[in-house]
Specification:
The chain is of the alpha/beta class and 402 residues long. It is 40% helix and 15% strand. The chain is built from 15 helices and twelve strands. A seven-stranded mixed β-sheet has the order 1-7-6-5-4-2-3, sandwiched between helices. A five-stranded mixed β-sheet has the order 8-9-12-11-10. The longest helix is centred in the last third of the chain and has 21 residues, at 262-282. The protein is globular, with a radius of gyration of 21 Å. 48% of the residues are buried. Bound molecules: pyridoxal-5'-phosphate. Pyridoxal-5'-phosphate binds at residues 89-91, 115, 117-118, 158, 162, 187, 189-190, 209, 211-212, 221, 223.
Length: 402
């Protein structure tokens, strides 16, 4: 069967067919899970991965795997990039990007609010290698502009950012980064490629935790970096082959299967989340709410410009949040009180401010005051799933009003 990618035009066609090919030997329509750590070779080849090409024959499981390759090709199409490398987790992708790209003496600008693992890696690990990190509120692009230096190598943003759903203008930030010869990496996990395709807005790298929306079912961990062929070749060698955080073919297969329904799921996540956001905005026990799809989100205008789908993540403040959280653990019937996000099951978790700003974000002064101004002593992060929305609102109402 011929496979002409140029015919995979629409996002739903890409999600279903992108990267997948019927098995050459058996004709199997569904991708095969190739669980083999080594491959029989029929021509001389180098024992070093240094000189290997991305589409060279398979040699060794850490260098590449046919099931993983199908996922990489699907994600390349969905993000409208040129190449993709998958990893064992979102953090494996993040660390592979940072450690493949950066060297002693480089400067990085990073949003001061983001996924805690990324925040801690940047603040605790990178400086040990002589890499300087400046954190800014990237929602205010003038702060990115002010932080630029001649040795700025990378600007790292997350949009929407965990946990307060702050947005960053990708197009403007990419222009700023490029003005000093730096590159822009966007952690687009909360958006998914259905909402935002950062490469089309000028970003150099898109990073995903596949554990979230793209896998979508809470059963497999994975990560990915999408970008240009040239820059991904380096990440492929240094980040994948040498750092070694490869994804298992079985997990790649689960995520491949999940990704096929991503466009449909994102529509349903958004529809449910919009309904619940409107319900929570009116709820007497909820003191504030952030959802990019609500007109009350301070960056709603940017959300409308940059997001084709408002996704399923909501943040709310409830007075006495810590105690309400303790009740939720006992009393919720449908929502799982659990971390993570982007699954078909609805999830909720209270994210206390104290610990996060001290240990992860290390915020001080105005940045700390700005974070507290909205997050107070903590926020509930809701990941709205695919259940019947009336059941979800009833479950929340029962605990909030109790
Ligand atoms: C979960 C997450 C990560 C880390 O991904 P893992 O798969 O858990 O390693 C990174 N960034 C964001 C925005 C996330 O939500």
């Amino acid at each position: 069967m011929a496979r002409d990618n140029s015919l995979l035009r629409g996002v739903s066609t890409r999600a279903v067919h992108g990267g997948e090919r019927p098995d050459k030997e058996t004709g199997a329509s569904s991708p095969s899970i190739v669980m083999s750590s080594t491959f029989v070779v029929d021509a001389p080849l180098s024992f070093s991965a240094e000189s290997r090409e991305h589409d060279a024959p398979y040699v060794y499981g850490r260098w590449g795997n046919p099931t993983v390759r199908q996922l990489e090709d699907k994600l390349t199409l969905l993000e409208e990039g040129e190449a993709c490398v998958c990893f064992a987790s979102g953090m494996a992708a993040t660390s592979a990007l940072l450690l493949s790209l950066l060297k002693h003496g480089d400067h990085v600008i990073m949003s001061d609010v983001n996924y805690p693992g990324t925040a801690e890696l940047a603040r605790n690990t990178l400086p040990r290698f002589g890499i300087e990190v400046t954190t800014v509120d990237s929602g205010q692009t003038e702060q990115v502009a002010e932080a630029l230096r001649p040795n700025t190598r990378l600007v790292w943003i997350e949009t929407p950012a965990n946990p307060i759903l702050r947005l960053t203008d990708i197009r403007v930030t990419a222009e700023l980064a490029h003005s000093v010869g730096a590159e822009l990496a966007v952690d687009s996990t909360f958006a998914s490629p259905i909402a935002t395709r950062p490469i089309t807005l000028g970003a150099d790298y898109v990073v995903h935790s596949l554990t979230k929306y793209i896998g979508g079912h809470g059963d497999a961990m994975g990560g990915a970096i999408i970008g240009s062929k040239a820059s991904l070749a380096r990440i492929d060698l240094e980040g994948q082959v040498h750092l070694g955080g490869i994804i298992s073919p079985f997990n790649a297969w689960l995520i491949l299967r999940g990704a096929a329904t991503l466009p449909l799921r994102m529509q349903a996540h958004e529809k449910n989340a919009m309904h619940i956001a409107e319900f929570l905005e009116q709820h007497p026990k909820v003191s504030s709410i952030r959802y990019p799809g609500l007109a009350s989100h301070p960056q709603h205008e940017l959300a409308c410009r940059q997001m084709d789908n408002f996704s399923g993540m909501i943040a709310i403040q409830v007075p006495g949040g810590r105690d309400v959280a303790a009740r939720m653990m006992q009393e919720l019937s449908i929502f799982h009180y659990a971390v993570s996000l982007g699954h078909h099951r609805s999830l909720i978790f209270w994210i206390g401010t104290e610990d996060l700003v001290k240990n992860s974000f290390k915020l001080e002064g105005k940045a700390l005051a700005d974070y507290r101004a909205w997050a107070g002593d903590g926020v509930f992060r809701l990941s709205i799933g695919l259940e019947d929305v009336e059941d979800l609102t009833a479950d929340l109402d029962q605990v909030l009003s109790g």
